Amino acid sequence: MQIGELAAATGLSRDTLRFYEKRGLLLSRRLANGYRDYPPEAVQWLCYLRAAQALGFTLAEIETGLPLLDDPAAAAPLLRDALLRKLDDIDARIAGLSALRADLTRELARPGFGCPALAA
Description:
Blueprint: H1 3-10, H2 14-23, E1 29-30, E2 36-37, H3 42-54, H4 59-65, H5 72-109, H6 116-119
Antiparallel strand pairs: 1-2
């Protein structure tokens, strides 16, 4: 499958596909004419990659921490663990943002909004 076909099948741009290939997230072989040739399973992999990104995983996390689709049955527990870790990360970020919000609310409630220049 050539890059244009893969782009059409996934809705991704050719530049995005080249970027993923450069990062090692997508593999191709070169044909005699120099064109990239992608295996049919690249479509499934790219859907997985985009779904992982939509769930908040970075490309670095996808590269190192998410299981591959070679053996879905074996990957299922690993994927579950990765999703649980991501959920913990999100909970920690929410807690941090909640604390920041509380700090800002306290500052805004103070006379002069907690700014020494406004209090004077």
